[in-house]
């Protein structure tokens, strides 16, 4: 199984349902398998529940990357980063998406449906998926994001 066969996990709250559907359609059209963990409607829900589901899919290897959408992207990214194995980046455009893959080895992308338009979000998602981690000087810093590391007293 190649990495491209591993699904992209999607999760969102009610504010993110429409943008998530747009992202999902684009992913499927491009041939990416998708694991859509909801929510699927506009009834008010709690974004931490969907962040937790997507992060579990990523850490358990059921998903290659996660994509989270709420109104601002802020709450759902904060929730995602409570999982110690997750490096979730809230980005506003494709530049942020590229740099967080290159420098932070981000494994979850967060987007704010009330903050950016669908075309910008689509560009960010495509860039996120297409950009490899650079390694090298970033390894030392990314290691310091793991729960095993603590700052020297
Ligand atoms: C929901 O109204 C909104 O609070 C949520 O989508 C998100 O923006 C929270 O950070």
Task: Provide a descriptive summary of the structure in words.
- There is one protein chain.
- With 153 residues, the chain is α/β, with parallel strands linked by helices.
- The protein has a single domain (3-143), classed as Sugar-phosphate isomerase, RpiB/LacA/LacB (Ribose 5-phosphate Isomerase B, Chain: A), CATH 3.40.1400.10.
- Helices cover 42% and strands 14% of the residues.
- It is built from 6 helices and 5 strands.
- It has helices spanning 17-29, 47-59, 74-80, 94-104, 118-130, 137-143; strands at 8-12, 34-36, 65-70, 88-90, 108-112.
- β4 (88-90), α4 (94-104) and β5 (108-112) form a beta-alpha-beta unit.
- α2 packs across α3 and α4 (94-104) runs parallel beside α5.
- The chain is globular.
